[in-house]
Amino acid sequence: MKSRSSSSLFCYFHPIFDFPGFSLISPESISKILVEQLRWLTMASATKPTRIGLAGLAVMGQNLALNIAEKGFPISVYNRSTSKVDETVERAKKEGDLPLYGFHDPESFVKSIQKPRVIIMLVKAGSPVDQTIKTLSAYLEKGDCIIDGGNEWYENTERREKAMAELGLLYLGMGVSGGEEGARNGPSMMPGGSFEAFKYIEDILLKVAAQVPDSGPCVTYIGKGGSGNFVKMVHNGIEYGDMQLIAEAYDVLKSVGKLSNEELHSVFAEWNKGELLSFLIEITADIFGIKDDKGEGYLVDKVLDKTGMKGTGKWTVQQAADLSVAAPTIASSLDARFLSGLKEERVEAAKVFKAGGFGDILTGQVVDKKQLIDDVRQALYASKICSYAQGMNLIRAKSIEKGWDLKLGELARIWKGGCIIRAVFLDWIKKAYDRNPDLANLLVDPEFAKEIIERQSAWRRVVCLAINSGISTPGMSSSLAYFDTYRRGRLPANLVQAQRDYFGAHTYERVDVEGSFHTEWFKIARQLKN
């Protein structure tokens, strides 16, 4: 279904008569064109106001709009590029004559929506969001609501919420995860900001979100301010870690175990039936089974080893540093992407070190393939626990700082379906926080602690094997280091603090006496040398 801006018949029909080849068009064709356009005009004037609007019709926007329409909510859509509007309307027709109406100008788009108006934006983060808000707010009225569904920096959301409040408008920042497929069939959604605005759209979100049996819709009101965007940001950071760990498992199995793509497909498909059951493991198995349509062999071997990124992983690591929260697995995954981008340098470095006797993979490692597969599975799972523990700790730290009162178990619940990191594993995380909402770290939950202990020997074998083979496993290695550091009651940090006091008089605390102390280390050391 379709409607267009129609301020006058002349402005709507004028392009036909202005067409240079108008005289060559047969009267019958002109008649058909006029009848069809008149039908659109009649539909536009007769159509009741829609329930909601969506601005920004790239892949995610189109699919979310179609999802909303398919769930029975009439929706108006708008895009600065009008061809995207027409494309979306055409898809709505083909996919079931869905109640989706397209508009080519912002004023008629806004006015087509029932009051109080709710408009979701899905545009690129940053200035495009501000520009879209400026365009739409010119036609909005007090009590109307704008929802940013993009991957926006949380402080921008808080700034915009305040600015909108001054205009009498409501504002939500809503993380949407699931990619193209999730947006169309049910994403995980993380709305934060005005609770009043959330109530405007709650009925729609509950139906549009992914539905998980025995768990419910994968959406909940996250909290105040920019909490929705912050949670989505950390979700993406965890996603970075997950993907890096899977890539390292692949590298060890292929480079040391010499598994073929057919074998890798079978291994990951089998893993997807157990504790590692997840969207990312599922699609990894799929990738290994896809042949190259432009040549011989498998497509994965033709993909350039250079990983892109859009910024949310970097933001996650920056926030971890700002909040003094250790997130080495997520940080190492970001570093791995940075290094992957140095493709030309890596190629040259490989030549230098090959000439010095270092091949791409160090030889001499004899492995039991079956044992290796099982060890890597266990190492991947144990590392994954550490990655999620880091992400959850970061969310909790920010929640405390901002007073958001975020419920970590509820976040795990809404990530169980629709989103990129959806996994059976998240149900166990939810249960861990249900058992103890104040859990200091997932590693010390009784169930997760037991699983880590059972897997740590295999985990160490894989990391050692990779090191001895010259294969980089920064995610698994840093996860293991995180675990080993966290589980130790005494660390060599005493020496570091002594060094700080030596050269900078930063003081130190003692294990046997309360208080802050400073020692004239340099004087004492000089006396001892004399």
From TrEMBL:
* Residue ranges of domain 6-phosphogluconate dehydrogenase C-terminal in the record: 228-522
Please report the name of this protein according to its UniProt entry.
6-phosphogluconate dehydrogenase, decarboxylating
NCBIfam families in the record, alphabetically?
A: gnd (TIGR00873), PRK09287.1 (NF006765)
Instruction: List the GO molecular function terms.
Output: NADP binding; phosphogluconate dehydrogenase (decarboxylating) activity
User: Per its UniProt record, what Pfam families does this chain match?
Assistant: 6PGD (PF00393), NAD_binding_2 (PF03446)
What the entry lists under InterPro entries is as follows: 6PGDH_C, 6PGDH_Gnd/GntZ, 6PGDH_NADP-bd, Pgluconate_DH
Q: What EC number(s) does its UniProt record assign?
A: 1.1.1.44
Q: In which pathway does it act?
A: Carbohydrate degradation; pentose phosphate pathway; D-ribulose 5-phosphate from D-glucose 6-phosphate (oxidative stage): step 3/3
Catalysis: reaction(s): 6-phospho-D-gluconate + NADP(+) = D-ribulose 5-phosphate + CO2 + NADPH
Q: Which family does the similarity line name?
A: Belongs to the 6-phosphogluconate dehydrogenase family.
Which UniProt keywords are present, listed alphabetically? Gluconate utilization, NADP, Oxidoreductase, Pentose shunt
A Gene Ontology biological process noted in the UniProt record is: pentose-phosphate shunt
**Top-rank taxon, per record:** Eukaryota
